[in-house]
Amino acid sequence: MYALKFNEKVCATCPSADCLLKCQYMTFEKEEAHEEMMKIVRGEDSRVLHECMTCYACEEYCRRGNHPYYLIGERREERGIYTAPRPITNQWINMTAMQGKYMVGDIKEKAISCCFLPQLAEMATGEIFKDVASSVVFGAEFMCPAVHTHFAKMSVVKERLPVVIENLTKLGIKELICLHDECYGTFTSIAPAYGMEVPFKLTYYMDFLLERMKELKGKIVPLNITVAYQRPCSNRLIPDKHHLVREILDLIGVSMPDRRYQDENSLCCAELFRPIGGYRIADDVQRRNLDDMVATGAEYCLFNCPACQDVLSEKVAKRGLQPVHIIDLCRTAIGEKEREV
Amino acid sequence: MSDILQSLKEIVGEKGVSNNPEELWFYSRDPGVLDPHFPDYVVAPRTTEEVQKIVQLANRENIPIVPMGGGMALTGLVIPLKGGIVLDMKRMNKILEVNEKARYAVVEGGTSQGVLKAYLQDHHPMLRHSLPDAPPATTIAANVSLHGQGRLTQQYGFNSDMVTGLEVVLPTGEVCRIGSPSLGPYWFSKGPTLPDLSGLFLGWLGTTGIITKLGFKLYPNKKYRDVELLVTDRVELVPDILYKLTHLEMLEDINVWFQPKPLLFAGNFHCTIYFTGDTEEEIDFKRRMVWDSVQGYLDSKDAGFMNIQYMKDMLMEMPQRGIAAFADVPKGGGFEYSGPITIIEHFPRYAAKVIELAEKYDILYASSARLISGGHSMMFSISFAFNRNDKAMMTRVKHALDEATAFSLEMGGIPWKPNYMEQKMTMEKMDPVTLKLLQMVKKNLDPQGIMNPGNWEVN
């Protein structure tokens, strides 16, 4: 079994305790934040183990390369602490079990991963994806298991991720374009944190998108719209990629006004807060997030994660914002899709 | 026999009667596991007068007569066990009246659930009826005559409780009106304040008369409808969870279901909770009330609400088609269920029995319970799917269903829409004085025993 590589000394000597101090759902004084984290490191009980909402953000707040979020998950599981109700936790484990119901396209050395989200396969078509669209994998056999970290089931991650890596490797894939942040984050953050080797090149889809849009620059008609961006939780695993959103938007003539809940201070879609923390916190986070989006005067709510889009589309539409995924927005900019109004 | 055929043609016209083997074949069976029995004639009347004449003919000639609606009860209730005439009521499908302010409708005895649903949507959007989760072609009269349930049963009781008046052709051929229509033009009460005679026909499965018209209650059709799905892996908690939910007195419908496939549903008991409102605020309020009512189970991590975004359309369907999908899991598209009416606190024992039977007979189960009247009872369906082309599997399902019925009787439950064998098992268990009373009713109403013989054979 793989084990988390966690450097206790890094935490012990941390000058900031930002991992907990910056947490948006728990409040700490600086000393307390440090002490609570050290309790977790030592394997002691901590209120963090009972109150953490699993937003992933501490992975971004820790600038020293440790993995506080994964450690919290490990400690919770060691103590038998369920974040969400047990039947919901087990349902997710069952739902994402490998049952041989997967889809493998005409695999070439370069392939795209749709994770366990069929809507990604519908989006990844047209001119932008013309060379890779048919080289696609989808299904539990190729799904990153990061979602189980929300339920502090790190054992499921450790059990399934090596199988996923092996399944992809067996297909002869040399480069995998991850259409979901969660996949890219899993392969580039979780896997190395647990000492798992990923024997193929990983490409984040926004890197791919940016390059393709540069190549298709001649076809771009600036959209001249404003958007509020819904940053997904899993982007916290790959914060160095966050800048790509703005670069892509600049290229297609889309402005993203500053708002309170953006960048490091982003609020996640909060739907998993519902089973973990109850409807009050989920409703409150979603309301604050949407109020903030509306206040910017944005016309569109821009999504990166299809799961966020599923959860928030109706809600943002009721507040007057058109929901759109960044891939669809790029396809609109090159005239492949009608502008949705 | 040719005289009877000719007589029937004279009553309903050439196209309203048949004894062609290919048509009799269809009327000899239903989608369940019981063996087929062929009728001698199939007749489709258009009016009460035609029904009267057919019944008079059957009475005179001593021919069995089996009134039939959609024919989808699954338990062989309209399979003509002793041959005779199958009276297909589907051409008597007129909606005769909707009284908007008194909230009732009057329809002919062959009117389908789907036709009324569409009519109300088009002409009376403020009103709805208690739609069962059966195919739209099933009829309203058949549903109430077997004490069916529907979407509003949790709030208002069995669909038969919603009846507000009946017109019945008695086995003698006389036409009788039950309730307020026996005194005047209004169909607002099936009994009170008169002696309630509707019980002579409701639940009798067409063995005491033929319903040619019926009135029944309609209810407010709210602008919004929503659903939550609570799951628990502890079956023993289900009765208490339902007690807390029904205490709210604000839920449209509650179904509790469990099934081993797909894997997503394995190991959990799912409580689908429907609620309605005229504003989004009302819906949000009710959702919060639902969550708050079970907060203790959320805190203990024993139960939680599923994110149902991707399955919401399926859950919101009326009627739901998921049952048909379940029937085809073993391929061959068959399923049947024993659906005892019982008390909610017995849910865990029934659930254990379903799983035991499925394992014993190597068959696939999917069980669902619908709450009745705010939790006073529930219909617990012990459902098994089978391949119609696999006789051995069908036999195993039949044995499992027999065992399920025996179990429910042991538990003090009442078999719902029982097949003729389950009816016998029920009568054997019944208080002898009660049985004697049933015999008196049947003997007096149908002395020749021509009405759907083989069913409720109390004599």
Would you summarize the structure shown here?
The complex is a heterodimer of chains A (341) and B (459). Chain A has helices at 8-12, 18-21, 30-42, 47-51, 57-61, 68-78, 86-95, 118-123, 154-170, 181-193, 205-215, 243-251, 273-277, 279-295, 306-318, 326-333; strands at 103-104, 110-113, 136-138, 175-178, 201-204, 225-230, 254-255, 300-303, 322-325.
- Structural class by SSE content of chain B: alpha+beta
The stretches of 5 or more residues of chain B where confidence is low (pLDDT under 50) are none
Biggest interface between chains: A-B, 20 and 24 residues
Q: Quote the beta fraction of chain B.
A: 15-25%
CATH superfamily of the largest domain in chain B: FAD-linked oxidases, C-terminal domain
Helix content of chain A: 40-55%
Name the helix and strand elements of chain A from N-terminus to C-terminus, one letter apiece.
HHHHHHHEEHEHEHEHEHEHHEHEH
> Tell me, what's the shape of chain B?
globular
The CA-CA distance between the termini of chain B, in Å, is 28 Å
- What name does the CATH topology of the largest domain in chain A carry? Rossmann fold
CATH class of the largest domain in chain A: Alpha Beta
How many structural domains of chain A? 3
**What does the average pLDDT of chain B come to?**
95
CATH class of the largest domain in chain B: Alpha Beta
Q: Which structural category fits the helices and strands of chain A?
A: alpha/beta
Give the second-level CATH assignment, the architecture of the largest domain in chain B: 3-Layer(aba) Sandwich
What's the helix count of chain A? 16
Whole-number count of domains of chain B: 3
Hey, roughly how much beta strand do the residues of chain A contain? 5-15%
The largest pleated sheet of chain A is described as: 5 strands, mixed
